[in-house]
Amino acid sequence: MAADVELPQGNPQSLHRSDVYLRVISALMLRDMRSRFGGNYWGYLVQVLWPCTHIAIIVGAMTFRGLKSPMGDSSMVFVATGAVPALAFQYISREVMKGYLIHKPLTYFPQVKKFDTVAARALVEIVGSFLGVMLVFVGLISFDCDPIPADLFTAITGYLAAIALGIGVGSINVGICSVFPGYVIAYILISFIVYMTSGVYFLACYMPDEIYAIMKYNPIAQIIEWIRLGYDPTLPIQVDYLYVLGWIFGSLTIGLLMERYIVRAQG
User: Fold this and answer.
1) Can you give the residue range of the structural domain that contains 217?
2) CA-CA distance, 165 to 250, in Å (whole number)?
3) What are the tens digits of pLDDT across the range 160-198?
4) How crowded is residue 108: how many other Cβ atoms within 10 Å of its Cβ?
5) What ranges in 146-266 are assigned the alpha helix state H?
6) H helix count then E strand count, the chain
7) CA dihedral of 124, 25, 254, 218, whole degrees rounded to 10
8) How many whole angstroms separate alpha carbon 174 and alpha carbon 171?
9) Which spans in 104-149 are helix H?
10) Torsion sign across C-alpha atoms 226, 232, 233, 236
């Protein structure tokens, strides 16, 4: 409810605009964290733990079927390099949209702008994503797996690209769902298809050339290859960095334009 957010009190003239903005963002972020899985801060831990659980399930399935890692000796590292960026994109792009719909009633307060709800949810998801990565690293180390990539810069920039693309696509989703709220359900199917065709469970570069050429239109597939190239530079991967950056900056630009001319126009 709107009453859950403690908005800045007192004379607005006595507060600097930046102070008001930071207080609003902080209040929205805390409300976000409390609204997950049971209405308390412990529920936020479920989201942070999900990448570890997700990886454990996939590795368990691969072990049960007797499948070996197509990259290196560790199935856990192979799955993590695909699942972590794919889940980061999926969660951010989806939750930013859901955050806007959940917090929309709060925009009736003059201090809360519609863009604030998007920014707050994006920050919460980014923090949760980084915490999830830290837990994945701890889990890999506890199973005697080396989570440190051979090319640290390549792996980190690939992961940051997944986060940036999630924010860009999420901002577009906000613009769409502000007009068609039912799009939230449709995007679940869209994100599932994107996830399943991104090469999380296999190396896309080993697919037939015709299929591989089609898969490379999926920017998440290229981001996963980007990160895996940081772990194994010998893989026969050719990442189109300009294509991925075009998706990132293009989606951010379109999302901001939609926020300016569509989201703000909604009552």
Assistant:
1) 2-263
2) 9
3) 999 999 999 999 999 999 899 889 999 999 999 999 999
4) 8
5) 152-177, 183-196, 209-215, 219-231, 241-258
6) 9, 0
7) 0
8) 5
9) 114-142
10) negative
How many of the other CB atoms lie within 10 Å of CB of 40?
Answer: 12
* Amino acid (one-letter) located at 80: A
Classify the phi-psi angles of 126: left when phi > 0, otherwise alpha if psi is within -120 to 50, otherwise beta. Answer: alpha
pTM above 0.85, yes or no: yes
Handedness of CA 234, 237, 238, 243 (dihedral sign): negative
Six-digit token string for 23: 């207080």
Higher-scoring residue by pLDDT: 157, 205: 157
Span 34-50, average pLDDT? 66
Model confidence at 55: pLDDT above 50 = yes
Per the structure, the count of domains in the chain is: 1
Rounded Cα gap, residues 178 and 258, in angstroms: 10
As a whole number of angstroms, the distance between CA 195 and CA 221 comes to: 9
pLDDT for residue 15 = 54
Label residue 175 exposed, middle or buried (CB < 10 Å: 0-12, 13-18, 19+).
buried
> How many angstroms separate the CA atoms of 164 and 170, rounded?
10
Tokens, residue 84: 């972590």
How far separated are the first and last CA of the chain, in Å rounded?
A: 19
Residue 9 pLDDT: 52
